[in-house]
Write a structure and sequence with these properties.
Elements: H1 3-27, H2 30-38, H3 40-80, H4 90-100, H5 102-114, H6 128-137, H7 145-184
Helix pairs in contact: 1-7, 2-3, 3-5, 3-7
Length: about 190
């Protein structure tokens, strides 16, 4: 893995964590904290739902970015070789098909990246012409374990940052509020002072 790739992966993990922290910050406003502190089942259900949504969002966004990067890399290869490609050849036809089918190609690559790595070839969008285009171009867009584990890690990083920050805010604010209640509680008047 190159240094630049390592920096980009680290940066994306930081972004996933910041997204989780940002959602926790928005959720843990004073009114939300009071609701969660008084009602544990609502807290658990909310945390589970937001964690699932956050994981799905980060996983889908990272795989979609990978799909668009796949498309751009192949398109750049076709554009670089355009001066050498003969008009009317099979490669020229593949290049035109690649340029004219961006939404379908990106969607198929996206679905391929979201699925568990498998040794068999699948066509998830159902458009066989798009899947035949991949074999004609000579690239495999199936997910691989190294990238798939990174996508899972990104989703889990966002979820863990959300849960850690939410629980930390709840605990911190609960302690602050109980200390303030003890300080502000008036002392009962003794009968001896009367």
């Amino acid at each position: 893995m190159s240094f630049l790739t390592l920096v980009v992966v680290l940066f994306v993990f930081i972004l996933a964590a910041l997204l989780g922290i940002g959602i926790a910050f928005l959720l843990m406003r004073p009114s939300g904290r009071k609701l969660f502190l008084k009602n544990a089942p609502v807290q658990v259900i909310t945390f589970i739902m937001i964690s699932l949504i956050l994981f799905s969002l980060i996983f889908a966004a990272s795989t979609l970015y990978r799909a668009s990067a796949y498309y751009r890399v192949a398109l750049n290869q076709f554009e670089d070789a355009q001066s050498v490609i003969q008009t009317g050849s099979l490669i020229a036809q593949l290049a035109d098909d690649w340029k004219n089918n961006k939404p379908g190609i990106t969607k198929e690559i996206w679905w391929q990246q979201m699925m568990l790595p498998d040794s068999e070839s699948h066509c998830y969008t159902g458009d066989q012409s798009i899947c035949d285009l991949f074999s004609g171009v000579g690239i495999s867009v199936a997910s691989r374990w190294n990238s798939y584990l990174i996508f899972l890690g990104l989703g889990l990083t966002g979820v863990l940052a959300f849960l850690f920050y939410s629980i930390w805010i709840l605990k911190l604010k609960y302690e602050e509020e109980t200390i303030q209640e003890k300080v502000l509680r008036p002392r009962p008047k003794s009968k001896a002072r009367r």
